[in-house]
Amino acid sequence: MTNEHYFSANPESELALRRIRVTIDGTPHDVSTAGGIFSPDRIDAGTSVLLANVPPAPPGGNLLDLGCGWGPISYTLALQSPRATVWAVDVNERALDLVRRNADELGLDNINACRPEDVPDDLGFTTIWSNPPIRVGKNELHNLLLRWVPRLTPESDAWLVVQRNLGSDSLHRWLDGELSDGFAVSRAATHKGYRVLRVRRRVLPADL
After folding, report:
1. Span 131-164, pLDDT tens digits
2. DSSP string, 133-190
């Protein structure tokens, strides 16, 4: 038994691919997963709540799946917005490899699965969808969100799903206090013990 986590960069366990059937954007698909990643046997409850409570993805631009895991959010974004570029970002190399495998099998050529440092620094996002890795710890989570949420383009939204028992309400308050006046934080939905938080980047005079 290894002491690895889904946020390990390189899982130590042997790669053993498994096939599961999941529904993505309303259609059943067979995809590959493996151990050493987040929720390898199913689309987890939080991600399901997020996907059920976000509006359709923007038709173009750069769309970010932050902490993509094996990729259910990325595939949904790519299917909804074939002309957009989906950035599937994770630190787990095995998860990224699975995203690439499945995207190729599903015919989704608009997904770019990569580590955080491989995303160009000047890239802005027309939306961010994320089931963020709460268990990395509060400081790491805060640093993660402060790195990516401010990269929303004006009049764009980040949608974050967080379990209530794991601090969704305190994270809401922290985001509200930490982000500048250019952002508005609200609770968009509550379901099955999860909160979906919406972070809206307002248009400021400097953006006009």
Report:
1. 999 988 899 999 999 999 999 999 999 999 999 9
2. -GGG-HHHHHHHHHHHGGGEEEEEEEEEEEEGGGTHHHHHHHHHHHS-TTEEEEEEEE
Average pLDDT over residues 23-46: 96
Residue 192 to residue 132: CA distance in whole angstroms: 17
Rounded to an integer, what distance in angstroms lies between the CA atom of residue 82 and that of residue 60?
8
Q: What is the value of pTM for the model shown?
A: 0.92
Which two three-digit tokens encode residue 93? 């190399």
What range defines the domain where residue 106 resides? 44-207
Q: Is residue 141 part of a domain?
A: yes
* Contact (CB, 8 A) for 101 and 140: no
- If one counts the domains in the chain, the total is 1
Secondary structure, 3-state, 49-98: HHHHCCCCCCCCCEEEEECCCCCHHHHHHHHHCCCCEEEEECCCHHHHHH
Angle at alpha carbon of residue 54, lines to 87 and 185, rounded to 5°: 90
